[in-house]
Model the fold of this input.
Amino acid sequence: MNILWPYGLSGAPILVYLLLIPCLVALSVVVYRLTLHPLARIPGPFLAACTGLYEAYYECIKDGGGRYWVEIQEMHRRYGPIVRINPWEVHIADPDWNAVYKYSARASKPRWFYFRFFGKFPSTNVAESHALHQLRRGPLQVYFASSNIQRYMPTIVAQVDKLCARLRAADGCVVSLSDAFRCLATDVATGFAFGAPFGHLDEPTFDREFNVSVRTVVKTGTWSRHTFGLLLPMLHSLPESVAKKMNPAFGRVKWMKDTMTSCVQRSMNKPEPAPGSPYDMVQTLVASSLPPEEKTFPRLFSETRSVIMAGTETTATTLVCITAHLLSDPFKLHKLRAELGAAEAAKQEQGGGPLEYADLRELPFVTGVINEGLRLANPTPSRLPRVCEDQDLRYKNYVIPAGTTISTTTQDTHNDGRVFAHPQSFLPERWADPEERRRLNRYLQPWGRGARLCLGMELATIDAYLAVSRLFGPGAGFDMSLYDTQDEDWVPYHEWFAGFPKGRGLRVRISRSKEVGHGKEGI
Ligand code: HEM
Done:
């Protein structure tokens, strides 16, 4: 008698039973999810409640992937402000509902969403529990303090000036500002982290290859999220030659990894700065009260990597959005230039130099332009999920049990016509009235929400103000006009945590005078 199958059946039915068992288990799970599961009453598509494969299809396959954020918007149109977007997660689109972020002292980040996407890099932004997050964020927050950012102001200004000088020298050429702004953002972030920028702005092509490689990596991250986090570690462990053969962009990823490795190692081995001299970011973490296991090379490398990644795409996408809107609307561009011109003239009269960040913040139209950019750019179309472990939360008549993953998407608020009239229009004027500005500011949330709020918001804001004032101010010495660019070339389409357009990016033709010449195909 067969001890594995004591009923005397032959091998064939065993195989059938072996196949049947997982099917029955899957069926029971689906029935449970649709009937007894605590989220069974939350509205949403039938398939999304049954299986995570529904989300995986939109994230990995449909229209090139990264499209679940659009499907979630569609679900809200169909089912209302609260929807079950997968078997274990609800998404809420209501500008006045903030409970899960208010309780962020107890909320954690879902591991499957963040850790599987970003890979095994133990950094602040993927810390799962609130306690670990607070521990890691503490010393970083010291480094991102306003006073420390001010110390790096000359480095930031130098990067913006370098970009302007390159554009000035590109008279008659077509330039991809999508690439150029990514270089600017990377050099600002690395200049701030290490005191010396990586030099992407010196790359003759504005490092198009690197920018393409970032896109490839984050797309792989999305696949990894839906394949149990296995894909990214597998890719990282491939020999360089094999990885490059699979996708040439991975060569550039390796280059970035090597550059970061040597910078982090150099900082770790630097002698302690003299009293009063600045520490760089890695030195700040090393000198902090973090426990030794939080100061290892992999930890410091991961932190550096995450800060640079967090600062690059986001800032660049915001600058792209602002520039595209201004170049499509001569009236707004004229108004901006007039305000910058008047402010600069006033400063010159008082014997001052070029407009600085503190001056620019006082200019209402410039501030409106930056705020509209932050509102419309949508650099992180991703939802920002949290799990409130120890407390049920409520949305209207629905009780959301403790342990449920809950998410919101800041862009839903930014596009809500009840908060921002004509939400799709770029209207810097809407920020002019101080009373109205106070109201709107409560709903401007590009930096995320709660205890996990963006650490780089001041750095990014300074970058944006300076870039806008230098690119469009009277001293720029060049003009830009859109070159063969449609909305789909720059508007975020794919969400791979950050937003990426479908098309070729924002391209402009540079000209010294107002007249657009016939230029060379360019940079
Ligand atoms: C316009 C530019 C930027 C936007 C819109 C933006 C947006 C965001 C958002 C939405 C989050 C929260 C993510 C989450 O909840 O999972 C975040 C976190 C973060 N950002 Fe930014 N960011 C920008 C620029 C920067 C810059 C320039 C840096 C640094 C160089 C930076 C560093 C970080 C870090 C370290 C975190 C993680 C914070 C934490 O988990 O405690 N960001 N950012």
